[in-house]
Design brief:
2 copies of one chain form a homodimer.
Chain A: H1 2-12, H2 17-25, E1 27-32, E2 37-39, E3 47-53, E4 55-61, E5 67-74, E6 78-79, H3 82-87, E7 94-97, E8 101-107, H4 108-117, H5 120-145, H6 148-158, H7 160-165, H8 168-174, H9 179-187
Antiparallel strand pairs in A: 1-8, 2-7, 3-6, 3-8, 4-5, 4-7
The first copy, chain A, binds a DNA duplex through helix 9.
DNA sequence: CTGATTTCTTAAGATATCTTAAGAACTTTT
DNA sequence: AAAAGTTCTTAAGATATCTTAAGAAATCAG
């Protein structure tokens, strides 16, 4: 748990043992049951979450009442609603545990203090944010370029693990395909 | 020019006059003519650009030979290909001046040095990166939710300036609509 | 001012994907 | 093991958007 977070920090910056202790003391361990919400549409997002184990999805309900999944996140990923967290505005998405999920979470206020006390963290979160930009651009770039069938094949190939852990209709939603049409695609 | 950059830094962090001078000395002024490329597909992106004046687009050529625009950037925006710049990989997009455009640009190597010397810059670029995440998510979130007609109307309403400065077929490309279909939409 | 290039429009037929509705196959709970 | 809930499939008709091809309008270069 502790080591898992420490390893992640060490990927990008070096913290002294004391610094890491200070950082770690600001995190809280939480376990969510399947279907529990970490963040509800309309609330202001107060936490950044580091996933120790499990699977989180980010989704909203569209005007027709259909769930639209915008992101999945698994072990060793950071998750939050950046817009709501950074600007302290009401969230337009829900964060929900797809499986039983354990996270380390940190409050915005605590993080703000830490960033001042340990400037190396600025670098860390700059890199995390840049990686997020890269990931999102790759995702949508691919999405825009490819048709439904290729999107699905790519998804299964790329993260075969997901195809196991997530029901098909959620993959469909993430890929912006109706489950019915995905069914057709899988046939032929 | 100098002030414009300084103002932008001051939005998020405070630099002493001396620090700003050091920062500024790493930037180079460049003017690109209409259609000049700042970055070519396949090259590794070596610069971050701060636009003083003008308009830059980011685009690639798809398998059918059609230009697909992924981003526009104007005065006071930062632009680069984050993936290529951060990971020093070949770029999958072109950056091109849509109008005559003046930028302040900084080399990756120089920026890396600056970030070490002036840690406050880490915070600055963390915030810039977070804002980019927010902007991209808003953009694609909206894109996914809305149909072509609403995307177009929103675009014109949101940045009316653009509708003047950018040919219609580029707006179509950015909104992922064929120019022919956009023509139909504008009629009825 | 004229020819060349770039940008925009029209219209008809083609296609990817959605919608609706229903039932089958699983999975979890009792 | 029955009931209840969740997930997946099938198929037919509907629709948003694309493709192709052509010409009109506007802008740029000589």
């Amino acid at each position: 748990m502790k080591t898992q977070l420490q390893n992640y920090f060490n990927r990008h910056i070096s913290l002294t043992e004391a610094q890491f202790e200070e950082v770690y003391s600001c995190f809280e361990i939480k376990t969510y049951q399947k279907k529990d919400l970490l963040l509800r549409e309309g609330e202001v997002c107060q936490h950044k979450y580091f996933i120790i184990d499990g699977l989180i999805r980010s989704y909203y309900i569209d005007d027709k009442g259909t769930e639209k999944i915008t992101q999945f996140a698994i072990e060793n990923w950071w998750v939050t609603n950046t817009e709501s967290f950074a600007l302290q505005r009401p969230s337009n998405i829900n964060l929900q545990a797809v499986e039983e999920t354990t996270v380390l979470r940190i409050k915005k206020d605590d993080l703000d203090v830490l960033l001042v006390e340990i400037p190396a963290l600025e670098k860390f979160f700059r890199i995390v944010a840049e990686n997020m930009v890269i990931a999102i651009q790759r995702r949508y770039g691919f999405y825009m370029k490819m048709n439904s069938k290729i999107r699905y094949e790519h998804f299964v190939e790329w993260i075969p693990d997901f195809a196991q852990r997530v029901p098909l209709y959620m993959i469909a939603s993430y890929l912006d395909i109706t489950p019915e049409y995905l069914s057709q695609l899988r046939k032929g």
